[in-house]
Amino acid sequence: MLPLANYQVLATADNGMEALRLAHRFEPDLIIMGWNLRGLSSSEVLQNLVGQHLCPIIVILTQEEHHVLTEVINDDAHHVLLYPWRMHEMVAGIQLAEHRYKRESENSQQIQRLEEEIKTRKFIFQAMLSLIQQRGFTEQSAYAALRTQAMSSRKPLRRVAQDVLKGSWMPERVE
User: Among positive and negative, which fits the CA dihedral 15, 21, 23, 26?
Assistant: First the structure.
């Protein structure tokens, strides 16, 4: 049924370790997994795949496996389908999983950008504090010195602040 939804099956596995190996080998656009894997438990495989953030993951559960639904949700599967499923449910599930994966990726990137911005501000603040304590700068003049050096050297402000903290650049105080 997947070719009808414009998906090609690249590989199948019934062993958890083999499934992880194949996921790394093929780098798929989507993983659809059942809950009856041998070897590594399905929960371990799901946690590993979600942690690696390779692609959207859909878990298909049988009626007998319905009791693990909470575990699957807590392991952050992108979508869950109960077997037997219909084609339109699978297509909708794929679209929903892809949407959730995309939003998750965007949020992760935004968090990384914000963390980098916080690190940059921390370096700048520490460099300004160093200039204030060691050279008697005011807060405004310390920032102005960092900014001027960044512009004249064509370096990011973060790099100039790191240079101050390493002691490889120190401006002279201008009265």
Answer: negative
